[in-house]
Design a protein that fits this description.
Length: 425
Amino acid sequence: MLQLSELKIAVIGLGYVGLPLAVEFGKKVPVVGFDIHQKRIDELRSGQDHTLEVSPEELVQSTHLTYSANLEDLKSCNFFIVTVPTPIDEFKQPDLTPLVKASESIAKVLQKGDIVVYESTVYPGATEEVCIPVLEKNSGLTFNQDFFAGYSPERINPGDKLHRVTNILKITSGSTPEVADYVDEVYNLIIEAGTHKATSIKVAEAAKVIENTQRDVNIALINELAVIFNKMGIDTEAVLQAAGTKWNFLPFRPGLVGGHCIGVDPYYLTHKAQAIGYHPEIILAGRRLNDAMGAYVVTQLVKAMIKKKIQVEGAKVLVLGLSFKENCPDIRNTKIIDIVNELQEYHIQADVYDPWVDAAEAQHEYNITPVQQLEQGQYDAVILAVAHDQFKTMGATEIRALGKPEHVLYDLKYVLDQSESDIRL
Protein backbone atom coordinates (compact mmCIF):
# COMPACT_ATOMS: atom_id res chain seq x y z
CA MET A 1 0.00 0.00 0.00
CA LEU A 2 1.13 3.54 -0.76
CA GLN A 3 2.70 5.60 1.99
CA LEU A 4 1.03 8.92 2.66
CA SER A 5 4.35 10.57 1.87
CA GLU A 6 4.03 9.17 -1.69
CA LEU A 7 0.47 10.39 -2.14
CA LYS A 8 -0.31 12.43 -5.25
CA ILE A 9 -4.00 13.08 -5.79
CA ALA A 10 -5.95 13.76 -8.97
CA VAL A 11 -9.42 15.28 -8.58
CA ILE A 12 -11.50 14.65 -11.70
CA GLY A 13 -14.14 17.35 -12.19
CA LEU A 14 -13.73 20.83 -10.69
CA GLY A 15 -17.32 21.84 -10.05
CA TYR A 16 -19.17 22.53 -6.81
CA VAL A 17 -17.87 19.27 -5.29
CA GLY A 18 -14.45 18.76 -6.83
CA LEU A 19 -12.93 22.21 -6.44
CA PRO A 20 -13.40 22.63 -2.65
CA LEU A 21 -12.01 19.11 -2.19
CA ALA A 22 -9.00 19.77 -4.43
CA VAL A 23 -8.29 23.06 -2.64
CA GLU A 24 -8.30 21.45 0.80
CA PHE A 25 -6.10 18.53 -0.24
CA GLY A 26 -3.84 20.99 -2.07
CA LYS A 27 -3.00 22.60 1.26
CA LYS A 28 -1.49 19.30 2.43
CA VAL A 29 -0.28 17.16 -0.50
CA PRO A 30 0.40 17.45 -4.25
CA VAL A 31 -2.89 17.63 -6.19
CA VAL A 32 -3.77 17.94 -9.86
CA GLY A 33 -7.25 19.36 -10.39
CA PHE A 34 -8.49 18.02 -13.73
CA ASP A 35 -11.42 19.28 -15.78
CA ILE A 36 -12.27 18.68 -19.43
CA HIS A 37 -13.23 22.34 -19.89
CA GLN A 38 -10.17 24.48 -20.62
CA LYS A 39 -12.21 27.59 -19.83
CA ARG A 40 -12.68 26.34 -16.27
CA ILE A 41 -8.96 25.61 -15.93
CA ASP A 42 -8.06 29.09 -17.19
CA GLU A 43 -10.52 30.67 -14.77
CA LEU A 44 -9.06 28.82 -11.77
CA ARG A 45 -5.50 29.58 -12.83
CA SER A 46 -6.47 33.25 -12.82
CA GLY A 47 -7.60 32.87 -9.20
CA GLN A 48 -11.37 33.01 -9.75
CA ASP A 49 -14.21 30.55 -9.12
CA HIS A 50 -17.54 31.40 -10.76
CA THR A 51 -19.40 28.94 -8.50
CA LEU A 52 -18.37 31.11 -5.51
CA GLU A 53 -17.66 27.97 -3.46
CA VAL A 54 -13.99 28.90 -3.04
CA SER A 55 -12.66 32.41 -2.49
CA PRO A 56 -9.59 33.81 -4.31
CA GLU A 57 -7.78 33.78 -0.94
CA GLU A 58 -8.47 30.06 -0.49
CA LEU A 59 -7.25 29.31 -4.01
CA VAL A 60 -3.96 31.04 -3.20
CA GLN A 61 -3.60 29.12 0.06
CA SER A 62 -3.74 25.78 -1.78
CA THR A 63 -0.03 25.85 -2.61
CA HIS A 64 0.27 22.21 -3.76
CA LEU A 65 -2.64 22.41 -6.23
CA THR A 66 -2.21 22.70 -9.99
CA TYR A 67 -4.89 22.66 -12.69
CA SER A 68 -4.97 20.86 -16.01
CA ALA A 69 -7.22 19.78 -18.86
CA ASN A 70 -4.45 17.52 -20.19
CA LEU A 71 -4.83 13.86 -19.26
CA GLU A 72 -1.06 13.34 -19.53
CA ASP A 73 -0.62 15.47 -16.41
CA LEU A 74 -2.36 12.76 -14.36
CA LYS A 75 0.21 10.07 -15.10
CA SER A 76 2.18 10.90 -11.98
CA CYS A 77 -0.92 10.64 -9.75
CA ASN A 78 -1.73 7.54 -7.74
CA PHE A 79 -4.97 8.42 -5.93
CA PHE A 80 -7.87 9.46 -8.16
CA ILE A 81 -11.04 11.10 -6.83
CA VAL A 82 -13.98 11.31 -9.23
CA THR A 83 -16.42 14.17 -8.63
CA VAL A 84 -18.29 14.42 -11.93
CA PRO A 85 -22.06 15.04 -12.15
CA THR A 86 -24.53 12.14 -12.11
CA PRO A 87 -27.74 13.61 -13.56
CA ILE A 88 -30.96 11.99 -14.73
CA ASP A 89 -32.17 12.01 -18.33
CA GLU A 90 -35.50 13.24 -19.72
CA PHE A 91 -37.10 9.95 -18.71
CA LYS A 92 -35.85 10.36 -15.11
CA GLN A 93 -33.38 7.51 -15.51
CA PRO A 94 -29.79 7.70 -14.20
CA ASP A 95 -27.36 9.12 -16.74
CA LEU A 96 -23.98 7.59 -15.93
CA THR A 97 -22.30 8.96 -19.05
CA PRO A 98 -20.05 11.47 -17.20
CA LEU A 99 -19.04 8.74 -14.74
CA VAL A 100 -18.22 6.25 -17.51
CA LYS A 101 -16.23 8.83 -19.49
CA ALA A 102 -14.28 9.84 -16.38
CA SER A 103 -13.48 6.17 -15.73
CA GLU A 104 -12.34 5.71 -19.33
CA SER A 105 -10.01 8.69 -18.98
CA ILE A 106 -8.54 7.49 -15.68
CA ALA A 107 -7.99 4.03 -17.15
CA LYS A 108 -5.60 5.53 -19.72
CA VAL A 109 -3.24 6.70 -16.97
CA LEU A 110 -3.97 4.05 -14.31
CA GLN A 111 -0.97 2.14 -12.98
CA LYS A 112 -0.39 -0.76 -10.61
CA GLY A 113 -1.07 0.09 -7.00
CA ASP A 114 -3.32 3.08 -7.81
CA ILE A 115 -6.61 3.74 -6.02
CA VAL A 116 -9.74 5.26 -7.60
CA VAL A 117 -12.32 6.77 -5.25
CA TYR A 118 -15.75 7.85 -6.48
CA GLU A 119 -17.68 10.67 -4.81
CA SER A 120 -20.47 11.09 -7.38
CA THR A 121 -23.93 10.04 -6.21
CA VAL A 122 -24.95 6.66 -7.64
CA TYR A 123 -27.23 3.74 -6.86
CA PRO A 124 -25.87 0.95 -4.62
CA GLY A 125 -23.61 -1.28 -6.69
CA ALA A 126 -22.79 1.21 -9.47
CA THR A 127 -19.11 1.59 -8.55
CA GLU A 128 -18.41 -2.14 -8.79
CA GLU A 129 -20.95 -2.97 -11.52
CA VAL A 130 -20.37 -0.03 -13.89
CA CYS A 131 -17.17 1.87 -13.09
CA ILE A 132 -14.76 -0.94 -12.21
CA PRO A 133 -15.39 -2.92 -15.45
CA VAL A 134 -14.68 0.26 -17.44
CA LEU A 135 -11.40 0.74 -15.55
CA GLU A 136 -10.40 -2.90 -16.10
CA LYS A 137 -11.34 -2.96 -19.78
CA ASN A 138 -9.52 0.25 -20.69
CA SER A 139 -6.43 -0.20 -18.51
CA GLY A 140 -5.79 -3.91 -18.89
CA LEU A 141 -5.32 -4.08 -15.11
CA THR A 142 -7.12 -6.40 -12.69
CA PHE A 143 -9.34 -5.00 -9.94
CA ASN A 144 -8.21 -5.64 -6.35
CA GLN A 145 -4.99 -7.07 -7.67
CA ASP A 146 -3.39 -4.32 -9.75
CA PHE A 147 -5.59 -1.39 -8.71
CA PHE A 148 -8.19 -0.70 -6.03
CA ALA A 149 -11.29 1.40 -5.47
CA GLY A 150 -13.25 3.26 -2.85
CA TYR A 151 -16.39 5.31 -2.44
CA SER A 152 -16.75 8.43 -0.32
CA PRO A 153 -19.99 10.28 -1.06
CA GLU A 154 -19.90 14.06 -1.38
CA ARG A 155 -21.87 16.11 1.12
CA ILE A 156 -21.33 19.56 -0.36
CA ASN A 157 -24.15 22.05 0.17
CA PRO A 158 -23.75 24.78 -2.51
CA GLY A 159 -23.75 28.30 -1.12
CA ASP A 160 -23.40 27.11 2.48
CA LYS A 161 -20.49 28.95 4.11
CA LEU A 162 -21.06 27.22 7.46
CA HIS A 163 -20.98 23.57 6.42
CA ARG A 164 -17.78 23.15 4.39
CA VAL A 165 -15.74 20.14 3.24
CA THR A 166 -13.56 20.08 6.33
CA ASN A 167 -16.28 20.29 8.98
CA ILE A 168 -18.78 17.83 7.48
CA LEU A 169 -18.30 14.25 8.69
CA LYS A 170 -17.22 12.08 5.75
CA ILE A 171 -18.24 8.53 4.90
CA THR A 172 -15.38 6.45 3.48
CA SER A 173 -15.06 2.92 2.12
CA GLY A 174 -12.68 0.72 0.17
CA SER A 175 -12.67 -2.40 -1.99
CA THR A 176 -10.57 -4.34 0.58
CA PRO A 177 -10.18 -3.84 4.33
CA GLU A 178 -6.66 -2.50 3.81
CA VAL A 179 -7.79 -0.08 1.10
CA ALA A 180 -10.70 1.05 3.28
CA ASP A 181 -8.22 1.91 6.04
CA TYR A 182 -6.00 3.79 3.60
CA VAL A 183 -8.85 5.75 2.00
CA ASP A 184 -10.05 6.70 5.47
CA GLU A 185 -6.55 7.82 6.40
CA VAL A 186 -6.28 9.98 3.27
CA TYR A 187 -9.55 11.80 3.93
CA ASN A 188 -8.61 12.33 7.55
CA LEU A 189 -5.80 14.54 6.29
CA ILE A 190 -8.37 17.27 5.66
CA ILE A 191 -11.65 16.30 7.37
CA GLU A 192 -11.64 17.94 10.78
CA ALA A 193 -15.10 16.60 11.64
CA GLY A 194 -13.86 13.02 11.32
CA THR A 195 -14.90 10.10 9.16
CA HIS A 196 -17.23 7.13 9.28
CA LYS A 197 -15.75 4.03 7.66
CA ALA A 198 -18.57 2.08 6.02
CA THR A 199 -18.40 -1.70 5.92
CA SER A 200 -18.45 -1.81 2.11
CA ILE A 201 -18.62 0.35 -0.98
CA LYS A 202 -22.29 -0.59 -1.47
CA VAL A 203 -23.15 0.49 2.06
CA ALA A 204 -21.48 3.87 1.45
CA GLU A 205 -23.35 4.28 -1.87
CA ALA A 206 -26.66 3.39 -0.24
CA ALA A 207 -26.08 5.77 2.67
CA LYS A 208 -25.57 8.67 0.30
CA VAL A 209 -28.60 8.01 -1.84
CA ILE A 210 -30.99 7.66 1.12
CA GLU A 211 -29.79 10.91 2.76
CA ASN A 212 -31.48 12.95 0.05
CA THR A 213 -34.31 10.48 -0.50
CA GLN A 214 -35.30 10.93 3.14
CA ARG A 215 -35.36 14.72 2.75
CA ASP A 216 -37.32 14.43 -0.48
CA VAL A 217 -40.03 12.29 1.09
CA ASN A 218 -40.29 14.58 4.12
CA ILE A 219 -40.67 17.67 1.92
CA ALA A 220 -43.27 15.86 -0.17
CA LEU A 221 -45.33 15.26 2.98
CA ILE A 222 -45.17 18.95 3.88
CA ASN A 223 -46.05 19.92 0.30
CA GLU A 224 -49.10 17.69 0.45
CA LEU A 225 -50.09 19.21 3.78
CA ALA A 226 -49.72 22.68 2.25
CA VAL A 227 -52.11 21.74 -0.56
CA ILE A 228 -54.64 20.43 1.98
CA PHE A 229 -54.35 23.46 4.26
CA ASN A 230 -54.65 25.85 1.31
CA LYS A 231 -57.94 24.20 0.36
CA MET A 232 -59.09 24.68 3.96
CA GLY A 233 -58.01 28.32 4.08
CA ILE A 234 -55.43 27.64 6.79
CA ASP A 235 -51.98 29.27 6.71
CA THR A 236 -49.45 26.45 6.37
CA GLU A 237 -46.58 28.35 7.96
CA ALA A 238 -48.70 29.12 11.02
CA VAL A 239 -49.52 25.42 11.34
CA LEU A 240 -45.85 24.42 11.03
CA GLN A 241 -44.78 26.98 13.60
CA ALA A 242 -47.37 25.65 16.05
CA ALA A 243 -46.46 22.01 15.42
CA GLY A 244 -42.78 22.92 15.66
CA THR A 245 -43.16 23.65 19.37
CA LYS A 246 -43.03 19.86 19.93
CA TRP A 247 -39.44 18.82 20.58
CA ASN A 248 -39.28 16.06 17.96
CA PHE A 249 -41.26 17.69 15.13
CA LEU A 250 -39.02 17.94 12.05
CA PRO A 251 -38.68 21.52 10.72
CA PHE A 252 -39.35 20.93 7.01
CA ARG A 253 -41.05 23.57 4.86
CA PRO A 254 -43.04 23.25 1.61
CA GLY A 255 -41.51 24.34 -1.66
CA LEU A 256 -39.93 23.40 -4.96
CA VAL A 257 -37.42 20.56 -4.76
CA GLY A 258 -34.66 21.15 -7.29
CA GLY A 259 -30.89 21.15 -7.34
CA HIS A 260 -28.35 18.46 -8.08
CA CYS A 261 -29.22 16.17 -5.14
CA ILE A 262 -32.65 16.03 -3.52
CA GLY A 263 -34.61 16.18 -6.76
CA VAL A 264 -32.32 13.70 -8.53
CA ASP A 265 -30.88 11.12 -6.12
CA PRO A 266 -34.16 9.30 -5.35
CA TYR A 267 -34.42 8.31 -9.01
CA TYR A 268 -31.09 6.49 -8.72
CA LEU A 269 -32.46 4.40 -5.87
CA THR A 270 -35.82 3.74 -7.54
CA HIS A 271 -34.05 2.75 -10.76
CA LYS A 272 -32.04 0.11 -8.92
CA ALA A 273 -35.06 -1.04 -6.92
CA GLN A 274 -37.05 -1.61 -10.09
CA ALA A 275 -34.09 -3.39 -11.69
CA ILE A 276 -34.17 -5.97 -8.89
CA GLY A 277 -37.94 -6.40 -9.16
CA TYR A 278 -39.28 -4.08 -6.47
CA HIS A 279 -41.59 -1.16 -7.22
CA PRO A 280 -40.97 1.58 -4.64
CA GLU A 281 -44.25 3.17 -3.57
CA ILE A 282 -43.44 5.95 -1.11
CA ILE A 283 -40.30 7.26 -2.82
CA LEU A 284 -41.94 7.59 -6.24
CA ALA A 285 -45.11 9.08 -4.73
CA GLY A 286 -42.95 11.74 -3.07
CA ARG A 287 -41.17 12.43 -6.35
CA ARG A 288 -44.45 12.80 -8.26
CA LEU A 289 -45.78 15.20 -5.65
CA ASN A 290 -42.65 17.34 -5.54
CA ASP A 291 -42.28 17.42 -9.32
CA ALA A 292 -45.86 18.73 -9.59
CA MET A 293 -45.36 21.72 -7.28
CA GLY A 294 -44.35 24.17 -10.02
CA ALA A 295 -47.66 23.65 -11.80
CA TYR A 296 -49.52 23.91 -8.48
CA VAL A 297 -47.89 27.26 -7.71
CA VAL A 298 -49.01 28.70 -11.04
CA THR A 299 -52.55 27.34 -10.58
CA GLN A 300 -52.73 29.14 -7.23
CA LEU A 301 -51.40 32.33 -8.81
CA VAL A 302 -53.88 32.25 -11.70
CA LYS A 303 -56.80 31.74 -9.31
CA ALA A 304 -55.66 34.73 -7.24
CA MET A 305 -55.35 36.86 -10.39
CA ILE A 306 -58.86 35.90 -11.50
CA LYS A 307 -60.26 36.80 -8.07
CA LYS A 308 -58.72 40.26 -8.47
CA LYS A 309 -60.18 40.45 -12.01
CA ILE A 310 -56.71 40.63 -13.56
CA GLN A 311 -56.62 39.47 -17.19
CA VAL A 312 -54.58 36.23 -17.20
CA GLU A 313 -53.85 35.80 -20.91
CA GLY A 314 -51.22 38.32 -21.90
CA ALA A 315 -50.42 39.20 -18.29
CA LYS A 316 -46.88 40.07 -17.26
CA VAL A 317 -45.40 38.22 -14.26
CA LEU A 318 -42.05 38.77 -12.56
CA VAL A 319 -40.31 35.74 -11.05
CA LEU A 320 -37.76 36.78 -8.43
CA GLY A 321 -35.06 34.10 -8.42
CA LEU A 322 -33.86 31.35 -10.76
CA SER A 323 -31.18 29.45 -8.82
CA PHE A 324 -32.31 26.27 -7.10
CA LYS A 325 -31.68 27.74 -3.63
CA GLU A 326 -30.97 31.03 -1.90
CA ASN A 327 -27.67 32.95 -2.07
CA CYS A 328 -26.18 30.60 -4.64
CA PRO A 329 -25.59 30.86 -8.43
CA ASP A 330 -26.32 27.16 -9.04
CA ILE A 331 -29.15 26.67 -11.56
CA ARG A 332 -28.72 22.92 -12.05
CA ASN A 333 -32.14 21.23 -12.07
CA THR A 334 -33.81 24.37 -10.74
CA LYS A 335 -37.56 23.93 -10.46
CA ILE A 336 -38.16 27.63 -11.04
CA ILE A 337 -38.11 26.67 -14.71
CA ASP A 338 -41.28 24.63 -14.09
CA ILE A 339 -43.02 27.81 -12.96
CA VAL A 340 -41.79 29.74 -15.99
CA ASN A 341 -42.88 27.01 -18.41
CA GLU A 342 -46.29 26.70 -16.75
CA LEU A 343 -46.84 30.46 -16.91
CA GLN A 344 -46.13 30.32 -20.63
CA GLU A 345 -48.82 27.63 -20.98
CA TYR A 346 -51.30 30.31 -19.87
CA HIS A 347 -49.80 32.74 -22.44
CA ILE A 348 -48.36 34.80 -19.61
CA GLN A 349 -45.12 36.71 -20.19
CA ALA A 350 -42.67 35.65 -17.49
CA ASP A 351 -39.70 37.87 -16.67
CA VAL A 352 -37.01 36.34 -14.45
CA TYR A 353 -34.66 38.36 -12.26
CA ASP A 354 -31.81 36.83 -10.27
CA PRO A 355 -28.71 38.85 -9.25
CA TRP A 356 -26.84 35.63 -8.42
CA VAL A 357 -27.21 33.90 -11.78
CA ASP A 358 -25.01 34.21 -14.86
CA ALA A 359 -27.24 35.37 -17.71
CA ALA A 360 -25.31 33.45 -20.37
CA GLU A 361 -25.65 30.21 -18.39
CA ALA A 362 -29.41 30.77 -17.95
CA GLN A 363 -29.74 31.33 -21.69
CA HIS A 364 -27.69 28.23 -22.50
CA GLU A 365 -29.40 25.91 -20.02
CA TYR A 366 -33.01 27.08 -20.15
CA ASN A 367 -33.30 29.55 -23.02
CA ILE A 368 -34.10 32.25 -20.49
CA THR A 369 -32.66 35.75 -20.66
CA PRO A 370 -32.99 37.21 -17.15
CA VAL A 371 -33.89 40.89 -16.90
CA GLN A 372 -30.98 42.97 -15.63
CA GLN A 373 -32.94 45.91 -14.21
CA LEU A 374 -36.12 45.97 -12.16
CA GLU A 375 -38.74 48.54 -13.20
CA GLN A 376 -41.58 49.68 -10.99
CA GLY A 377 -45.25 49.34 -11.88
CA GLN A 378 -44.73 46.81 -14.66
CA TYR A 379 -46.22 43.52 -13.45
CA ASP A 380 -49.63 41.95 -12.95
CA ALA A 381 -48.05 39.52 -10.47
CA VAL A 382 -44.76 38.99 -8.67
CA ILE A 383 -43.58 35.57 -7.47
CA LEU A 384 -40.95 35.68 -4.74
CA ALA A 385 -39.49 32.30 -5.69
CA VAL A 386 -36.00 32.23 -4.09
CA ALA A 387 -35.11 33.67 -0.69
CA HIS A 388 -31.97 35.57 -1.72
CA ASP A 389 -30.75 38.09 0.86
CA GLN A 390 -31.24 40.84 -1.73
CA PHE A 391 -34.96 40.10 -1.88
CA LYS A 392 -35.24 40.00 1.91
CA THR A 393 -33.58 43.41 2.05
CA MET A 394 -36.05 44.81 -0.48
CA GLY A 395 -39.00 44.02 1.77
CA ALA A 396 -42.70 44.03 0.89
CA THR A 397 -42.99 47.72 -0.02
CA GLU A 398 -40.15 47.67 -2.56
CA ILE A 399 -41.30 44.37 -4.05
CA ARG A 400 -44.90 45.58 -4.25
CA ALA A 401 -43.71 48.68 -6.11
CA LEU A 402 -42.73 46.41 -9.02
CA GLY A 403 -46.39 45.54 -9.58
CA LYS A 404 -49.15 47.48 -11.23
CA PRO A 405 -51.69 49.21 -8.98
CA GLU A 406 -53.70 45.96 -9.03
CA HIS A 407 -51.40 42.93 -8.78
CA VAL A 408 -50.80 39.66 -6.92
CA LEU A 409 -47.75 39.02 -4.73
CA TYR A 410 -46.97 35.34 -4.17
CA ASP A 411 -44.43 34.65 -1.42
CA LEU A 412 -43.23 31.14 -2.14
CA LYS A 413 -40.46 31.15 0.49
CA TYR A 414 -42.08 32.82 3.53
CA VAL A 415 -39.75 35.80 3.20
CA LEU A 416 -42.52 38.24 4.13
CA ASP A 417 -45.06 38.29 6.92
CA GLN A 418 -48.39 36.69 6.10
CA SER A 419 -50.14 40.06 5.91
CA GLU A 420 -47.61 41.43 3.39
CA SER A 421 -48.35 38.98 0.54
CA ASP A 422 -51.51 37.81 -1.23
CA ILE A 423 -50.59 34.11 -1.34
CA ARG A 424 -48.15 31.82 0.45
CA LEU A 425 -47.52 28.18 -0.30
